[in-house]
């Protein structure tokens, strides 16, 4: 069982103190720490947490961007709840140190695994939802996702590839080429890395949850590089 000090530290970072500590314990207990065949309460919390996060993020986005239609809002939400983003939230909270893991998972570096951190973050949010209700969960998630929600609309609506094409046609009389250089992660949470090439030179790399998103990020980074080169003395 996690030491009370680790729970206390986690609660301080969350800004919430659990009334029912068994919910927090369940959220922090990985399947590897339980006997085979036991139904893990934490897995059920992950299922609930996925739905709670979808609802809260959708609610926050709709309030922030009331002019967006359903398709745009769905795209914005998908950007916010990617596995890599949820894992980052888990690292910021120090979830890895508070986890209960089996020996095998401990030896394999489970405390730092992106998939585990993302799942446990979902479970902790669900535990808080069950302990205190929607309003409290919404308040905490809202604090966690301030940056993502602020940046989401720009990333979803700005067509960096078109801007880069216009810039390179004017400057180099050519168009960009995008090359997929890496694809990793499970089928339900693939991550792609693409490069933006112009006139035989790789200008930048970008990552994303789809090939198009990775290319958009690569295009944006390439635009930044071209702007830096233009402004250099």
Describe what this molecule looks like in 3D.
With 233 residues, this protein is mainly alpha-helical. The protein folds into 2 domains: 4-152, Ribonuclease III domain (Ribonuclease iii, N-terminal Endonuclease Domain, Chain A, Orthogonal Bundle); 160-231, Double Stranded RNA Binding Domain (2-Layer Sandwich). 64% of the residues lie in helices and 10% in strands. The chain contains 12 helices and 3 strands. The protein has a 3-stranded antiparallel sheet with strand order 1-2-3. Strand 2 and strand 3 (201-208) form a beta hairpin. Helix 2 packs antiparallel against helix 8, helix 3 crosses helix 8 (114-132) and helix 4 (70-80) crosses helix 10 (146-157). The longest helix is centred in the first third of the chain and has 24 residues, at 41-64. The radius of gyration is 21 Å and the shape is elongated. The termini are far apart.
Give the strand order, joined by hyphens, for the main sheet: 1-2-3
Name the CATH homologous superfamily of the largest domain: Ribonuclease III domain
State the low-pLDDT regions, or none: none
Evaluate the radius of gyration. 21 Å
Mean pLDDT: 88
Please summarize the sheet with the most strands.
3 strands, antiparallel
Second rung of CATH, namely the architecture of the largest domain: Orthogonal Bundle
Going by helix content, strand content and strand pairing, the class is: mainly alpha
């Amino acid at each position: 069982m996690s030491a009370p000090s680790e729970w206390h530290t986690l609660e301080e970072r969350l800004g919430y103190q659990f009334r029912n500590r068994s919910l927090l314990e369940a959220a922090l207990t990985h399947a590897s720490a339980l006997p085979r065949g036991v139904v893990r309460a934490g897995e059920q919390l992950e299922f609930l947490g996925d739905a709670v996060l979808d609802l809260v993020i959708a609610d926050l986005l709709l309030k922030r961007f009331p002019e967006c239609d359903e398709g745009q809002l769905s795209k914005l939400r998908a950007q916010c709840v990617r596995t890599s983003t949820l894992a980052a939230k888990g690292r910021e909270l120090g979830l890895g140190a508070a986890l209960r893991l089996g020996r095998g998972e401990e030896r394999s570096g489970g405390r730092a695994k992106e998939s585990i951190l993302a799942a446990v973050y979902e479970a902790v949010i669900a535990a808080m939802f069950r302990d205190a209700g929607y309003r409290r969960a919404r308040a905490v998630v809202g604090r966690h996702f301030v940056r993502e929600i602020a940046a989401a609309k720009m990333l979803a609506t700005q067509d960096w590839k078109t801007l880069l094409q216009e810039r390179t046609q004017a400057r180099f009389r050519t168009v960009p080429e995008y090359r997929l250089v890496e694809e990793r992660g499970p089928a339900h949470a693939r991550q792609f890395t693409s490069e933006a090439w112009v006139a035989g030179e790789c200008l930048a790399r970008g990552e994303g949850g789809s090939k198009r998103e990775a290319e958009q990020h690569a295009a944006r980074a390439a635009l930044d590089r071209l702007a830096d080169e233009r402004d250099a003395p």
